[in-house]
Each structure stands twice: as structure tokens, then as C-alpha cells.
Design a protein that fits this description.
The protein is an all-alpha fold. It contains 11 helices and no strands. The protein has one domain (5-212): Heme Oxygenase, Chain A (Up-down Bundle). The protein is globular. The structure holds the ligand Cc1ncc(C[n+]2csc(CCO)c2C)c(N)n1.
């Protein structure tokens, strides 16, 4: 059954997928208790992720095999370029992160890893490879965001990072990505699996990096 293809990939990525979705960063985000220093580090790194992510979306638009898919990627690229970038800038301001601070912060290892896997997927010109990375980057974020308990934290820096990944438009986009990979992935299972599994590992590494020495205080 072709519609189980993404489910098979997700199962194959366990236990890493669940470790990422249930990460300490996620549980502290739910309760609004991530220290500012940790959140600032995460968002500075993630803002860089966004840059390569937009070029991956461009590759999706170029490699898609239908007009409908191209239109959806185009609309989504518009949302990401507008609202999401605004969130980052407001969050940096609220956390006291200046443009100079950002410029002085080097890319963390998982940031470099993500930039290269996104570039690599784009360069394959394979729609399935691009979709595999997108399914992880979007599906894994929807998975944890949609499980957030209510009420959301008061601080918008935390609350909006949840609602950006748990809203109707995002849910529909995640469902679209899944349907697309279920449709085109089974013809190229090895490349799909390779990109999917590597992307899940990078997601976990990305969360782990924010708690590594130098970035975060120890647990109280
Ligand atoms: C490491 C990392 N992985 C996935 C996402 C999720 N994500 C990246 S771009 C984008 C599109 C618009 O929200 C989404 C959902 C992230 N932010 N950071």
C-alpha cells in the first residue's frame, strides 16, 4: 500500500524520531521554562536553518511533477518568508539578541549538517529526496507542536514557536507532503530512506546541541 510509505520510514527512524519529539527542549518549551540563553542560541541557529530551507522549497518547486504541487510550494514559501521571519526578528529583540551577537555566533555542527543535507537533496534534482527532507523537517515539528498541552506559555517567544507549527495551514501542508512522498517515494525507496533517516538524526542533534556545554546551564 503506497500510503504507508512515509509511515514505514517513520518507523525505521525510531527511536530517534521519538527522542526528538519528546526532547527536553520540547518539554521546556511547553512549560515556557527554556532559559533565555538557550532559546537565543536555538533561534540564532534555526534562523540560519531557515535560509537553506527556503532554497530547498525552491528545489521542491522546481522538481515537482504537477502544477498543483508547485502552487502549494509557492504559497508555503510566501508564508515562511513573511510571518516566520517576522517571528524571529521579534524574538531576537525580546531576548536582547543584537545583529552583532548573531553575526558573531558561528554555525553549530547540526546547523552545518542541515544546511548540507538540504543542499545535497536540492542538488539531486530528485523530488523524492527533497520531499524526504521536507517530511522530516515539517512532520517532526508538527508532531511535537500538536501535542503541546494547553494553556500555552505566556511568553510569545515560546507560545508562537508552538503555534507556528500547530495551525491548520501547517497541518494541511504536512498532510500534502506526506501524500506526495507516499505517491513518488516507493519508486525510489533507497534515496528516500537515506535522506529521511539522516534528517531525523539531524533533528535530534539540533535539539541536543542547545544543551551542550557552553550553551546552557545544567539542570537545576
Ligand atoms: C531544526 C529544525 N527543523 C525543523 C524545523 C521546522 N521548520 C523549518 S522551516 C519550517 C517552515 C515554516 O514553519 C519549519 C516548520 C525547524 N524550524 N528547525
Amino acid at each position: 500500500m503506497t500510503e504507508q510509505f512515509t509511515e514505514t520510514l517513520k518507523q525505521a527512524s525510531e527511536p530517534t524520531w521519538t527522542k526528538a519529539v519528546e526532547h527536553r527542549f520540547v518539554s521546556e518549551l511547553y512549560t515556557g521554562t527554556i532559559p533565555d540563553k538557550v532559546m537565543a542560541f536555538y533561534l540564532v541557529q534555526d534562523h540560519r536553518f531557515l535560509d537553506s530551507f527556503l532554497s530547498l522549497l525552491g528545489a521542491a518547486m522546481a522538481s515537482a511533477d504537477t502544477l498543483d504541487a508547485r502552487l502549494r510550494f509557492g504559497r508555503f514559501a510566501g508564508t515562511v518568508s513573511g510571518e516566520e521571519n517576522t517571528y524571529f526578528l521579534r524574538a531576537f529583540e525580546s531576548l536582547g539578541v543584537t545583529p552583532e551577537d548573531r553575526a558573531a555566533t558561528p554555525d553549530a555542527e547540526p546547523t552545518i549538517g542541515f544546511q548540507s543535507i538540504m543542499r545535497e537533496a536540492a542538488e539531486t534534482r530528485s523530488y523524492a529526496a527533497v520531499l524526504s527532507v521536507l517530511n522530516v523537517a515539517e512532520g517532526l515539528y508538527y508532531d511535537w507542536a500538536s501535542r503541546a498541552p494547553k494553556p500555552l506559555p505566556k511568553n510569545f517567544v515560546h507560545a508562537e514557536w508552538i503555534t507556528l507549527h500547530d495551525n491548520l495551514e501547517f497541518l494541511q501542508f504536512v498532510a500534502f507532503l506526506r501524500d506526495e512522498l507516499d505517491r513518488v517515494g516507493p519508486a525510489v525507496p533507497e534515496i528516500s530512506r537515506d535522506f529521511f533517516l539522516r534528517a531525523v538524526s539531524l533533528e535530534l542533534d539540533f535539539f541536543n546541541a542547545v544543551y551542550e556545554e557552553g550553551n546552557a546551564p545544567d539542570r537545576p
